[in-house]
Design a protein that fits this description.
With 386 residues, this protein is α/β, with parallel strands linked by helices. It has twelve helices and twelve strands. A seven-stranded mixed beta sheet has the order 2-8-7-6-5-3-4, with helices on both faces. It has a three-stranded antiparallel beta sheet with strand order 9-10-12. Helix 6 links the parallel strand 5 and strand 6. The chain binds pyridoxal-5'-phosphate. Pyridoxal-5'-phosphate (PLP) binds next to helix 3.
């Protein structure tokens, strides 16, 4: 069997050895509960304090503005429901986009369905960019929150978050961004971005699955969505997951240190991959924005090919890829993101997402470019034209 080529870093990443090393003591001798007042507990508290300071340094915010959660999904839910319920008396209107992750979309739909909130789902253009004028038109006196992702998980398009923040700031409307896909690949300065809330998930940047962050700007109204102890300054009850929180902080710290060199290297590989695919595969189309896209993300649609069949074919060559979001793979429904970008369903079903990471190199890109055209040709030969 040939060497495995993992091109699905948007789905998840392996835990870095340095991260494992930082976490290990907290599974063993340093097992205290951070709420305990004796030495072992204080030691765990200090570890969490270190993690909070570290994450705050990377995000350019205050440590008290960091809330540790169990994942990106929880961070998104806490941001949206937390602000919505806290500001219920002021307004019931939320604005988001049609291409958000389901953690945001379904949280918004739940608020609509069960609590009478009104949600506007903004359209995007053919490159996946949100329409700022449509956003401005959608604002009402009742709008309390806007949630727009920093970068899309399926097509990598980066949204103009700063411009959105500028539109909202003078109106006193809070801005949340789901930055889960940007963690480890883009600079994350909450002041430059101008956001009030920002979600991250550890497993997208070489920390374990099951740990996340929600940044909450000081003064942002937020009701907790789960009740219990007073952890995380009352914003997120539950005994802190000390090893995972330490791991997340270590991974984010490493990612921030290496960001300039990683970004440049990944961008080079990504551009080679995109150019190669467009050159060698007839009828291939790049999806997402040509330039405003994540440095590690290449995504395509291919006429006359079923995305799932292509994944299986690549798997036979030991290449791990995705049709788009991991959460929808396994279902044949075309992606809501590609549909919102105006792609016909027949084309949207032939999608492929290749997302790069630390261990990928030029040889792997070349091998992928050797395998992919043949795989597509074979599938086209056996697939009736739709
Ligand atoms: N938001 C985006 C944009 C994502 O890509 C993901 C995961 O793929 C999530 C949220 C959910 O994060 P988690 O898997 O940590 O729940």
């Amino acid at each position: 069997m040939s060497e495995q080529i993992y091109l699905d870093h948007a789905a998840t990443t392996p835990v870095r050895p340095e991260v494992v090393e930082a976490m290990l003591p907290f599974f063993g001798s340093r097992y205290g509960n951070p709420s305990s007042i004796y030495g072992l507990g204080r030691d765990a508290r200090e570890a969490i304090d270190w993690a909070r300071d570290t994450v705050a340094r990377v995000l350019h915010c205050r440590p008290a503005e960091i809330v540790f959660t169990s994942c990106g999904t929880e961070s998104d839910n806490l941001a949206i429901k937390g602000v919505a319920f806290a500001l219920r008396d002021r307004g019931n209107h939320i604005i988001t986009t049609q291409i958000e992750h389901h953690a945001v979309l379904h949280a918004c739909e739940w608020l609509e369905r069960y609590f009478g909130f009104e949600v506007t789902y903004l359209p995007v253009d053919s490159t996946g960019l949100v329409d700022l004028q449509a956003l401005e038109r959608a604002l009402t006196d009742h709008t309390i929150l806007v949630s727009v992702m920093l970068a899309n998980n399926e097509v990598g398009t980066i949204q103009p978050i700063r411009a959105i923040a500028d539109l909202l700031r003078r109106r006193g409307i809070y801005l949340h961004t789901d930055a889960v896909q940007a963690g480890g690949t883009l600079e994350l300065d909450v002041n430059r971005l101008g956001v009030d809330l920002l979600s991250l998930s550890g497993h997208k940047f070489y920390a374990p699955k099951g740990v996340g962050v929600l940044y909450v700007r000081q003064g942002t109204p937020l009701l907790p969505i789960q009740q219990g102890g007073g952890q995380e300054r009352g914003r997120r009850a539950g005994t802190e997951n000390v090893p995972y929180i330490v791991g997340l902080a270590r991974a984010l710290e490493l990612a921030a240190e290496e960001l300039p060199s990683t970004t440049q290297r990944l961008r080079g590989l990504r551009d080679r991959l995109i150019a190669g695919v467009l050159e060698r595969v007839p009828g291939a189309r790049l999806t997402g924005h040509p330039t405003e896209r994540l440095p590690n993300s290449a995504s395509f649609v291919f006429e006359g090919v079923e995305g799932e069949a292509l994944l299986l074919s690549l798997d036979q060559h030991n290449i791990c890829a995705s049709t788009g979001s991991a959460c929808t793979s396994g279902s044949l429904e075309a992606s809501h993101v590609l549909k919102a970008m105006g792609l016909p369903v027949s084309l949207a079903q032939g999608s492929l997402r290749l997302t790069l990471g630390r261990d990928n190199d030029a040889d792997q890109i070349e091998r992928t470019l050797e395998v992919l055209p043949g795989a597509i040709e074979r599938l086209r030969a056996v697939t009736p034209v739709r």
